[in-house]
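Justification of resources, computational component.

The compute hours requested in this renewal are based largely on the per-chain cost of generating structure records like the one below. Each record pairs the submitted sequence with a full structure-token output. That output is archived, and it is also reused by downstream analysis tasks.
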Amino acid sequence: MNIWPSLLIVAVTAISTLATRALPFILFGNKKRQVSEPILYLGRVLPPAVMAILVVYSLKDISFGSAASWANPIICVAVTAAVHLLRRNTLLSIGIGTVCYMVLVQGAFF
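The structure output for this chain reads:
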């Protein structure tokens, strides 16, 4: 069994991920250089935009034919929004929303 193609895929993926994560720090990591206004603007508007896209993507396939097909996603979006409004912690709200969805999908209620 030849594992070299698989190892090569993993290596290329790891290097690509590392490069895309490190590139902003390499380009903008100099403390002496001022960060430009467009970059600061993107830093302010992109996180909420990504969250809105995730909400739309999560709810795009809902059909209101039966409660089982819409109740779980709506409950979990509401839980995620409530946790985020209370704690203002994106990671915590996404994590709790994901756990809520997995519990509901596994048959806790519907």
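Residues 4-108 form one domain. The radius of gyration is 20 Å.
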